[in-house]
TrEMBL record:
It is a multi-pass membrane protein. PANTHER family: INTEGRAL MEMBRANE TRANSPORT PROTEIN (PTHR23517:SF3), RESISTANCE PROTEIN MDTM, PUTATIVE-RELATED-RELATED (PTHR23517). This is MFS transporter. Signal peptide: none annotated. Residues 20-418 form the Major facilitator superfamily (MFS) profile domain.
């Protein structure tokens, strides 16, 4: 007679290799949805819609960032209550109209509206794949898991930005680059709907065996926190979580600034669309590939010093870009910026996984990503205002100063969150 007892979820990368790999592929498609437009939209704003003011051009980045930040909160809350897979599927449904709206947009506000939908898609899908991977791997290899997740997402941003730039150069700014988004959405709906499995039971299994820290540091972070308490701890009160939130915001401030400003800055040197696409691809490309190393490295050496060094590296990189005036200097700066971001991005997510109780981990990831993705909007607004008042180079210098200040906050306030001795056996 077959055993009808439900199987106990197994934690670990090896035990969940097939599902983990599938989720990596899904997150690559999430990243590709952003990459399809990053090289093209700033150029589209000027050539087809006649926009010249930097602040106005950056409206689509701000709309994307604010919407994504809000969607992150709902992704975390709903995935804890209803499960991960339903949230993932709903997120992909929001992506369906985005490429079509960008192809047919008769004015700039269609582009802004498309980016509102894209923000919802990104917040729901990316946050959910992050939580699902943390569910599957357990406490031992969070850094590696986040490195693989973020490498897939931002590697796809880079590859798709490069492809979109090539298609735009060969066939025009519309519709060719946005056909990539249509293909990505169709494939993602198929994979998410048919092959992805729910992972919330893995979190419940981990919560049943959760062991508090011996030093009592997390005694107040018990399983029964309300949504409001989770938001306060992750955003403002708890030193490691709130330090991670501010560093994430500044990191995406830099990304939002680069998204709207870098193509315009690079165009001042009369570079072609292909060269601009290559420069833009270098940043997320190094960022994506570097996370394959830095995520696992944080499991070995800890989180805090990697985050501090990464934010400082971003500050130096932005200074190099601000001083540059041609392809070689900008290429060096974008590679360095990608390196600094790779040091920070998976490590901050691992910090949240280290500190948050499994019972409210989804909500903690959501709150962190609310703060982090507000950086898109802050970067767009800050970059646009400073660029309009003082010029493009001054906007990059402003971001460099903010990044240096963020590194100092992490160095002073964050404690080390990773405890290798308490980790579960590798698997």
């Amino acid at each position: 007679m077959p055993d009808l007892q439900p199987r106990t979820p197994q934690l670990g990368l090896r035990a969940n290799a097939a599902q983990f790999t599938l989720l990596v592929a899904v997150n690559a498609l999430v990243g590709g949805m952003v990459g399809q437009q990053q090289t093209v939209l700033p150029l589209l704003a000027g050539e087809e819609f006649g926009l010249t003011g930097y602040t106005f051009v950056f409206t689509y980045v701000a709309a994307f960032g604010v919407t994504k930040a809000i969607a992150n909160w709902f992704a975390g809350t709903l995935s804890d209550r209803w499960g991960r897979k339903p949230v993932l599927l709903v997120g992909w449904l929001f992506a369906v109209p985005v490429p079509l709206m960008l192809i047919w947009a008769p004015d700039w506000w269609w582009v802004v509206a498309a980016n509102v939908l894209l923000g919802i898609n990104q917040g729901l899908t990316w946050s959910t794949t992050v939580v699902m991977k943390i569910d599957l791997v357990g406490p031992d290899r969070r850094g590696l898991a986040m490195g693989l997740n973020e490498a897939a997402g931002y590697g796809a941003v880079a590859v798709t930005a490069l492809l979109a730039g090539h298609l735009a150069e060969q066939y025009g700014l519309r519709p060719a680059p946005f056909l990539l988004g249509l293909a990505y959405t169709a494939l993602a709906l198929l994979l998410s709907g048919v092959f992805v499995r729910e992972t919330r039971d893995h979190a419940h299994h981990e919560a049943a065996g959760h062991v508090p820290r011996a030093d009592g540091l997390h005694d107040h972070l018990h399983a029964g926190l309300t949504d409001r308490q989770v938001a306060l701890q992750a955003g403002l009160k708890e030193p490691a979580l709130s330090s991670a939130s501010q560093a994430g915001l500044v990191n995406n401030l830099n990304f939002g600034l680069s998204w709207g400003l870098f193509p315009l800055l690079f165009a001042t040197a009369d570079l072609g669309v292909g060269e601009i696409g290559l420069l833009f691809a270098l940043y997320p490309g190094v960022w994506g590939a570097g996370q394959l190393v830095t995520g696992a490295l944080s499991d070995r050496i800890g989180r805090k010093h990697l985050v501090t060094a990464g934010m400082a590296t971003q500050a130096v990189a932005l200074a190099v870009i601000a001083l540059g005036d041609g392809f070689a200097g900008w290429a060096a700066g974008t590679v360095l910026l990608g390196t600094g971001t790779a040091m920070v991005y998976p490590t901050l997510l691992a910090v949240v996984g280290d500190v948050a109780h499994p019972a409210w981990r989804g909500r903690a990831v959501g709150v962190y990503r609310v703060w982090r993705d507000l950086g898109y909007a802050v970067g767009a607004v800050l970059g646009g205002i400073v660029a309009d008042l003082l010029g493009l180079h001054a906007a990059v210098w402003a971001a460099a100063v903010v990044s240096a200040a963020s590194a100092l906050v992490v160095a002073v306030r964050m404690y080390e969150t990773h405890r290798p001795a308490a980790a579960a056996p590798r698997g």
